[in-house]
Amino acid sequence: MRATEVPAIAGAYLFEPTPYADERGFFCRTFDADVVRSVGLDPNAFVQDSVSRSARGVLRGLHLRSGDGEAKLVRCSYGRVFDVVVDLRPDSPTYRERAFFELSGETQATLYIPAGCAHGFQSLTGTADTSYRIDRPHDPAEDVTIAFDDPELAIPWPLPVTSMSRRDREAPSLADALRRKES
C-alpha cells in the first residue's frame, strides 16, 4: 500500500493498495495501520464505519461538520464515484481549494479527508458502494451541508443528478454554510 499526499488539500492523503488478481478475482488490503501511521495519522482515532449504496447519478453532499469537524477515510468498494473535497479550514494553506478523484472498486484506493473539509460524491455506475471510516461519533446537530451547485465552487459534476436527499437539495450556498459552521 502506498500513501500519496494530495497537493490541492493540505493534510489529505490517497492510500493506494496493490490488489492481487487471479482467476478467482482479487484480494487487497484496504487499511494498514502502519501505512496510516507513516503519514502521521493515528489509526486508532477512527471510531465508526459506515457504508452507502448509490445508483448512477445519485449525488451525496457536500457535507462537513461544525465544531471540531470530522476526519474520514473514504473508499468506493464497488462501482465508481466522482469524489470531491473542498478545504474549508480558514488557517489552511489550501483554504477553499478543491480536489477531485475517481474512486472505484477496481482500485480500492482510500482517500483521507481532514477535519474541516467538505466532502461529496456522485455515483458513476449503476451501483456504487462507498465506505467511510470516521474519527468521531456522529452528532446530527453538527451537520453542515453546502449546495452542490454553488457557483463559487463550480464543481464539474460529470452526470446529471438523478437523486439526492432533501437536505442536499435545500442546502445553502457556501457563504451561508460557512456562517453556520462558525456559529
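[next item in queue]
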Amino acid sequence: MNRRPTLLAALALTATAALTLSACGGGSDEGSAKDKDSDKIAGASAGGEKPTSPSESSASAAAGRPKIELPSDLSYTFDWPKTGDKEKDAILTDSEQSVKAVDLAITNQDALDKGYLYYYEGEGAAETQNFIQNYVDHKASLTGSYRFYAPVVAVGKDGAGSLSYCEDQGRHM
C-alpha cells in the first residue's frame, strides 16, 4: 500500500500548524526556535518523506539508506526519546536522517545529493532541491550545533503519519 501522498500532506499540515501556533515558544530553557529559513521546516521535516515499516526502521543503516557523515563543525542533538510504538519510532528515525541529509547536501553544495533524495520525492523533493539550491547559489553553508526537541508524532488509522518538533539553533559557531 502506498501511503506517501497522505503522509506528505499530513506532515506538511502538521509542520505548518506547529509554526503557526508557535508551539516551541521562546522560553529561556528551550532556547531559540528560530528557523534557518521559513522553508526549512516545511521542506525538511515534511514534504515527501518516504514512510517506512517497523522492520525498516530497526535496520535503518542496512536497509539501503544513505550513510550520512556530517562535517565536524556541524552537530545535532535529537531530544526525542523512543515512543515504544514501532511506526512512530520509524517516523522519528527517518526524520532525523532526512534533516541530516538535507543539511549534508547544503554543506556539500549539491542540490541533487542522493542522500536527501532517498527521503524525498515528487513535490517534496522539488521544494527541498530549491531550498538547497538557494544555499548553493549564495555559496552559503551551515555550521554549529542544533537541538531538536518536543516531538509530536501521530499515526492515523489510515496509516498516515505526522511529525512536528521544535528546533534550537542558538549555538552557532
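[queue empty]
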